[in-house]
């Protein structure tokens, strides 16, 4: 029944585009006409030892793509399609795949192993193909090394694709045994050993039971550590990758091995080739990650229960670890600052040092200071740069008490170095270190100020000067200025920056116009810094901020006038438009926040909106995220008068809401709809049919990224608040959606942290929708319409209360909904509330919360309930 | 597989552009979230107090909380907390270093939180601890918006306290009023108007102080804004401010440019809460100021009010609307004679609207509605005891033409009224009786007894209304008793073929009247004695035997 597809597959890879397109078309038709035969033919092709390697490879690839897709919706379709295929056909295909594993042709068996894992990912959860793992394991004892290698690769892919809970522990044990045996030093074939080591990396997620067993764990650890000493560099690297993964997955099991791990990594960092040394550093970074998380959970309260105790590995290793990391800092590459993707020993070492500082705090300072003091004045730029880098790396973590006196001394030195050091690499790191100083040791929360009226002017002058330096140095100087002004964000009505405001703005605008501003992301840094300068400015400089409006508008206008552009040019223009829209967003927000400034700003509103609409129009396919955000700010500043822009804006809102692919655009648009609702109030009504239709479509789509769904629910609330009882006509659509989402999010049992976090976001969105709807209907004669939904809502509140895993935000919103329900439904809700299982406990718990926002909502809810019950 | 995994973390030395853009977006989201919460919070707070009794004590200060969860011990803890929160505020005010503003706002927020707690907010404790001068300081010009908001909020809650507590706010009033102006942001102006409203609600003395300090024009201008919650709060504050009894403020208000237009415009809006507050302003304007009343009746206000009466089901809204209509009708002869003309659409639509209100389960609404019916359609039986409101002084009875009465008589109101006369609580029954009684009489010419409308009387008596009136005669309420006696007189005199006395006797009317023989009220004693003598004298019953 299979068909000959060799020639078509070869043609599909032809250099001649006509031939290629014709072949692709035939393949597509074949697939559409008879999927079973098509897949069967491909598997036959893949298995055929007499076939050319190119056609076999492509056959395997098409098979793989017929089983899985990145996009969730498509993936689901493909899974269903495979499950619906004739059992006999599937058996034949799977037989071909398993047979291909024995092929001596590397490309063939390697492709087959990936396809097998994809089939397994579909079938094992359905309890189909039970014999797969058994038959793979029987291959392990085959003599030809390539069969063993292919089998181990397959097991590795399988562990990557399949969820651990669909494989029996018994089979897991057998897989691990086979894998660890393959990694063993006794294994003479390096390809087999490498395949086994990489397979173990994926199998680690399956090994919880085995890691709880001392003997098995000891054995696995011994084999992995041995493999880090293997003569083959790829195996050493793969083995270190296993160790990194073990360090984060099984942190609490590391204690017996930590000494050996240190020895191995220290040796690798000092002596091994870079890819291996980088993994060795990564291992310590991963341990830092774990300990930072654990200590954060302790929250300074060491009696608190944490699932995992902190073993303070970093603290213990500190005396040896820090010198090892400091050594790496001297291994810089010449031009690493110019290459955005650069990653080398020095960069990894500094990053790890930063994590160590965050883990241990003050303890790191005495270990690093001698290195800095010794090297910072050396003639070799590497030493000066390494010393500066070390200093910059440890500024987050240690207490200000520990750092302030040092920083006070260092500050002057740094400012001089930034001006005078002959090496641009050193200047780059110096500017970055200044930025770190301002980020962590300057601001309203810091007790002893680093920046005083005496040195403020000097700092600003030096930073502005450096903005004329090489692009990478100028970029870092912008960064330092960014954190400098950020430290003054809550300063009140008078800012020390005010005297320099005009000069700063002028310099930053000048930077954005530099010919070479495209290098080292300099232009982006300059605009973002300008934004921060505006955001943190005070009313004293409002008039100067206002003067910026026409300047930025002109720049945006110029991008719209540009003549035909190359694709590269278009991309750059697009990026620039984003930056300018972002800048206008920040300015609008700033000026809109004070009444007199807002009044003055309003003269530009029409022109600004006009520009944004043109930005949308010149990007036919999609809506610009930044422009959308800026429009939200304009809506807030304009209030009800924003209605005049709606007729033209509406279609772009709709486009944004339809943008499933760039889900951030969709999310931003949802947020802007909320802004517009608040601005227009009931004047948004004429647009609500369209908006609600689109939002409901978004919610029913399984194509849309899940992160957009909670804001969509909140947006229901915004709409209901704006249009009040006119929301009536949407109730019959919105309520069932909310109800089913509520059911889904009521229970989280078995979910991981990330899922619980998402669930809480979802709950919050749902609850905000309910609040908005209740408050919207309040005092209207139509409140009756909401009564039928009340029991379910109360039940939802009950169940999330019982679940005991809501975060503070959800708690506050939830207790608010209880109050809103009582407030709006009044006596109609009284008895329902009294019947509710846990609402009284929930209320009392909220009333005694430490979080004043929760308390406030709870007190209000209590009042509303009392009234509802007493009527 | 392994080829792709090599994890690359972000270098510690990264470009500021990456973080900054992310933060900026996050900031935009946070801002939107805060604004959403602000909207919800305003909506929630606006409800406070309005829902309660539904009568004219429109105060935001009474949170109506009969909660039982608060016990004395908690109260003393609360007071201690308040005391230390005020001290913290004092320290925060002195602090001049980094983050001073945040410290101040945080301290203020804590005070405000405590003052917003429970049904017995620790106002006294806060005042004793010296909160007022600190709060006044926080209101100084140029302060950040958040600080102004929190301070004004604190004052709002203090103003909601006991009269002597409210008076403590005297030094703050000029600043609160100053922040009502156009230069302030809307939320600040709104919060300040709330505080001013609470102060004005305290009594005449404070009202006069506020007026002399110029609160009225600023609040009036807030009525011209187009933000619902701002107008609502301003309207509420204004209705407290013009409460009188001096009509000057009401007259001043209606003369502010644009206010009349704004009132009409807001009353047309879908927002019922807004319309409710504005309607209360109209209630006071029309009750107090002749100037205002004559300006109001010349606009299409009455039309708008009647439309709202027909459309809305919101009790909160209907009550002030009914009262406004009543005031306008009572206050200006022009209305009854030229606007409520039989055959005009407004006259036709007002009756069904009133009937709808009569059917409501709400006692106050029924009562207001009955008062209105009595007034609009003519009250003839004299009624001299003072009614609840000055607005209802019924000196002018011209409205009650026979045509008006016929209109009521032929409407669906009659069965409803008859039912209420039997089943409703006493105060309602009394008002129903006035209406029913009035349906049977026409205005008298000169000073003589009212003329009877015989067919109305016969019909209503045949439907069994007499026992209801006799019941009133037995009541301790002199006014009601008098009304009952008056109706008995009508029956005795007006029922055809002299059937009146029998009907009265059957309904135990003689017994009811004889009780007045030794009544302390001379007028009633005379009325009853005369009636008994005239209709049930020695000759009575002779014919039958």
UniProtKB/TrEMBL annotation, chain A:
Pfam family name, one: HEAT_EZ
One annotated GO biological process: protein import into nucleus
InterPro entries: ARM-like, ARM-type_fold, IMB1_TNPO1-like_TPR, Importin-beta_N, Importin_beta
SMART domains recorded: IBN_N (SM00913)
This protein's UniProt keywords: Cytoplasm, Protein transport, Repeat, Transport
Keyword Protein transport: yes
One Gene Ontology term, aspect cellular component: cytoplasm
Keyword Metal-binding: no
UniProt-recorded Gene Ontology molecular function terms: small GTPase binding
All copies of domain Importin N-terminal, residue ranges: 23-103
Classification via SUPFAM superfamilies: ARM repeat
Location of the protein in the cell: Cytoplasm
Principal subcellular localisation of the protein: cytoplasm
Protein name per UniProt: Importin subunit beta-1
Source organism (scientific name): Coffea arabica (Arabian coffee)
Classification lineage: Eukaryota, Viridiplantae, Streptophyta, Embryophyta, Tracheophyta
Automatic annotation (TrEMBL), chain B:
Key word Transport present: yes
InterPro entries for this protein: ARM-like, ARM-type_fold, Arm_3, Armadillo, Importin_alpha
Signal peptide bounds: none
Pfam families in UniProt: Arm (PF00514), Arm_3 (PF16186)
Extent of Basic and acidic residues compositional bias: 1-12
ARM repeat placement: 214-241
Keywords (A to Z) from UniProt: Protein transport, Repeat, Transport
UniProt family annotation: Belongs to the importin alpha family.
Protein name: Importin subunit alpha
Organism field: Coffea arabica (Arabian coffee)
Gene that specifies this protein: LOC140009281
């Amino acid at each position: 029944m299979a068909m000959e597809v060799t020639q078509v597959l070869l043609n599909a890879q032809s250099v001649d585009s006509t031939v290629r397109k014709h072949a692709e078309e035939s393949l597509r038709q074949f697939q559409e006409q008879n999927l079973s035969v098509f897949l069967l033919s491909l598997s036959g092709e893949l298995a055929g030892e007499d076939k050319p390697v190119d056609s076999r490879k492509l056959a395997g690839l098409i098979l793989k793509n017929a089983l899985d897709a990145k996009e969730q919706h498509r993936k689901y379709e493909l899974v269903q399609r495979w499950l619906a295929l004739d059992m006999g056909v599937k058996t034949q295909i799977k037989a071909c795949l398993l047979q291909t594993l024995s092929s001596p042709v590397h490309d063939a068996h390697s492709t087959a192993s990936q396809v097998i894992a994809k089939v397994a990912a579909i079938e094992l959860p359905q309890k189909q193909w039970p014999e797969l793992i058994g038959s793979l394991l029987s291959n392990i004892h085959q003599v030809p090394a390539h069969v063993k290698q292919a089998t181990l690769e397959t097991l590795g892919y399988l562990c990557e694709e399949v969820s651990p809970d669909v494989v029996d522990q018994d089979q897991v044990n057998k897989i691990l045994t086979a894998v660890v045996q393959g990694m063993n030093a006794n294994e003479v074939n390096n390809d087999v050993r490498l395949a086994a080591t990489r397979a173990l990396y994926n199998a680690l997620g399956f090994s919880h039971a085995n890691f709880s067993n001392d003997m098995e764990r000891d054995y696995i650890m011994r084999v992995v550590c041995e493999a880090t000493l293997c003569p083959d560099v790829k195996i050493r690297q793969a083995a270190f990758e296993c160790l990194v993964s073990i360090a984060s997955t099984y942190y609490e099991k590391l204690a017996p091995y930590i000494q050996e791990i240190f020895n191995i990594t220290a040796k690798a960092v000092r002596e091994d080739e870079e890819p291996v040394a980088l993994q060795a550093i990564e291992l310590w970074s991963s341990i830092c990650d774990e300990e930072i998380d654990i200590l954060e959970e302790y929250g300074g309260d060491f009696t608190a229960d944490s699932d995992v105790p902190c073993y303070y590995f970093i603290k213990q290793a500190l005396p040896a670890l820090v010198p090892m990391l400091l050594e790496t800092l001297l291994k810089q590459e010449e031009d690493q600052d110019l290459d955005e993707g650069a990653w080398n020993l020095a960069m990894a070492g500094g990053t790890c040092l930063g994590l160590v500082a965050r883990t241990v705090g003050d303890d790191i300072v005495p270990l690093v200071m001698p290195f800095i003091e010794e090297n910072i004045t050396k003639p070799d730029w590497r030493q000066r740069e390494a010393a500066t880098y070390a200093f910059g790396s440890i500024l987050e973590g240690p207490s200000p008490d520990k750092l302030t006196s040092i920083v006070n001394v260092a500050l002057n030195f740094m400012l001089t170095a930034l001006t005078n050091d002959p090496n641009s690499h050193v200047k780059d790191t110096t500017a970055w270190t200044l930025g770190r100083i301002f980020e962590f040791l300057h601001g309203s929360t810091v007790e002893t100020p680093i920046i005083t009226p005496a040195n403020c002017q000097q700092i600003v002058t030096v930073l502005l000067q450096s903005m004329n330096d090489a692009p990478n140095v100028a970029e870092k100087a912008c960064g330092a200025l960014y954190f400098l002004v950020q430290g003054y964000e809550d300063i009140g009505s008078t800012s020390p920056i005010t005297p320099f405001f005009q000069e700063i703005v002028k310099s930053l605008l000048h930077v954005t116009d530099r010919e070479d501003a495209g290098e080292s992301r300099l232009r982006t840094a300059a605009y973002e810094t300008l934004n921060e300068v505006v955001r943190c400015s005070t009313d004293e400089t409002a008039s100067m901020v206002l003067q910026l409006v026409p300047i930025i508008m002109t720049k945006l206008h110029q991008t719209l006038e540009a003549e035909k552009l190359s694709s590269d040019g278009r991309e750059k223009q697009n990026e620039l438009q984003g930056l300018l829209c972002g800048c206008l967003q920040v300015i609008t927000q700033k000026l809109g926040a004070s009444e007199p400034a807002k009044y003055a700003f309003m003269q530009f509103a029409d022109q600004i909106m006009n520009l944004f609409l043109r930005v949308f129009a010149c990007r036919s396919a999609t809506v610009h995220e930044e422009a959308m955000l800026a429009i939200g700010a304009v809506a807030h500043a304009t209030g009800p008068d924003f209605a005049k822009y709606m007729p033209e804006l509406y279609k772009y809102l709709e486009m944004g809401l339809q943008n499933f692919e760039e889900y951030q655009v969709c999310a931003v648009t949802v947020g802007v709809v909320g802004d517009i609702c608040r601005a227009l109030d009931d004047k948004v009504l004429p647009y609500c049919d369209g908006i609600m239709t689109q939002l409901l479509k978004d919610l029913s789509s399984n194509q849309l990224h899940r992160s957009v769904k909670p804001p969509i629910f909140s947006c229901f609330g915004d709409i209901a608040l704006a249009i009040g009882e006119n929301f009536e006509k949407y109730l019959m659509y919105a309520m069932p959606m909310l109800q089913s989402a509520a059911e889904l999010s009521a229970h989280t049992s078995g979910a991981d942290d990330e899922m619980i976090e998402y669930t809480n976001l979802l709950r919050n969105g749902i609850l905000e929708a309910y609040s908005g709807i209740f408050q919207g209907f309040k005092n209207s004669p139509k409140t009756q319409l909401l009564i039928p939904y009340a029991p379910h809502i109360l039940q939802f509140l009950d169940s999330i209360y019982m679940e005991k895993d809501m975060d503070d935000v959800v708690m506050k919103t939830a207790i608010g909904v209880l109050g809103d329900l009582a407030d709006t439904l009044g006596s109609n809700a009284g008895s329902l509330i009294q019947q509710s299982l846990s609402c009284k406990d929930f209320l009392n718990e909220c009333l005694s919360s430490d979080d004043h926002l929760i308390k406030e909502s709870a007190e209000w809810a209590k009042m509303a309930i009392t009234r509802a019950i007493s009527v | 597989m392994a080829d792709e995994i090599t994890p690359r973390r972000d270098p510690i030395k990264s470009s500021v552009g990456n973080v900054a853009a992310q933060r900026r977006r996050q900031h935009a989201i946070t801002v939107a979230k805060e604004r959403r919460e602000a909207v919800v919070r305003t909506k929630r707070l606006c409800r406070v107090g309005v829902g309660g009794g539904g009568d004219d004590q429109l105060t935001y200060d009474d949170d109506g909380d009969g909660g039982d969860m608060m016990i004395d011990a908690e109260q003393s803890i609360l007071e201690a907390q308040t005391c230390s929160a005020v001290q913290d505020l004092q320290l925060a005010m002195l602090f001049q270093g980094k983050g001073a503003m945040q410290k101040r706002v945080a301290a203020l927020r804590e005070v405000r939180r405590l003052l917003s707690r429970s049904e017995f907010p620790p106002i006294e404790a806060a005042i004793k601890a010296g909160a007022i001068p600190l709060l006044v300081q926080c209101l100084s010009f140029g302060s950040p918006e958040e600080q102004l908001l929190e301070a004004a909020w604190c004052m709002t809650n203090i103003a909601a306290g006991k009269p002597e507590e409210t008076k403590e706010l005297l030094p703050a009033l000029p600043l609160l009023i100053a922040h009502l102006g156009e230069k302030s942001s809307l939320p600040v102006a709104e919060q300040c108007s709330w505080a001013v409203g609470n102060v004005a609600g305290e009594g005449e003395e404070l009202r006069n102080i506020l007026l002399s300090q110029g609160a009225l024009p600023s609040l009036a201008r807030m009525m011209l804004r187009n933000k619902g919650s701002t107008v609502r709060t301003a309207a509420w504050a204004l209705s407290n401010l013009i409460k009188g009894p001096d009509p000057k403020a009401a007259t001043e208000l209606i003369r502010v440019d644009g206010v009349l237009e704004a009132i009409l415009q807001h009353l047309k809006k879908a927002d019922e809460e807004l319309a409710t507050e504005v309607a209360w302003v109209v209630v006071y304007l029309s009750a107090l100021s002749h100037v205002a009343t004559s300006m109001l009746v010349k606009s299409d206000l009455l039309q708008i009010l009647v439309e709202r009466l027909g459309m809305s089901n919101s009790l909160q809204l209907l009550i002030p609307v009914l009262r406004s209509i009543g005031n306008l009708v009572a206050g200006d002869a022009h209305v009854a004679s030229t606007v409520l003309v039989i055959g005009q659409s407004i006259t036709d639509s007002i009756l069904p609207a009133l009937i709808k209100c009569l059917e409501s389960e709400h006692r106050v609404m029924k009562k207001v509605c009955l008062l209105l019916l009595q007034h609009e359609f003519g009250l003839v039986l004299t009624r001299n005891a003072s009614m609840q409101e000055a607005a209802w002084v019924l000196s002018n009875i011209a409205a009650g033409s026979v045509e008006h009465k016929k209109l009521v008589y032929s409407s669906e109101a009659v069965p409803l009224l008859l039912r209420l006369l039997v089943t409703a609580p006493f105060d309602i029954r009394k008002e129903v009786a006035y209406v029913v009684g009035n349906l049977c009489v026409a205005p008298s010419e000169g000073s003589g007894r009212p003329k009877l409308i015989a067919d109305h009387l016969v019909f209503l008596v045949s439907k069994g209304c007499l026992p209801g009136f006799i019941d009133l005669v037995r009541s301790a309420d002199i006014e009601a008793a008098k009304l009952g006696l008056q109706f008995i007189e009508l029956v005795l005199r007006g029922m055809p073929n002299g059937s009146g006395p029998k009907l009265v006797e059957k309904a135990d009317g003689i017994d009811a009247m004889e009780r007045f023989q030794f009544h302390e009220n001379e007028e009633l004693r005379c009325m009853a004695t005369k009636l008994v003598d005239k209709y049930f004298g020695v000759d009575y019953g002779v014919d039958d035997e």
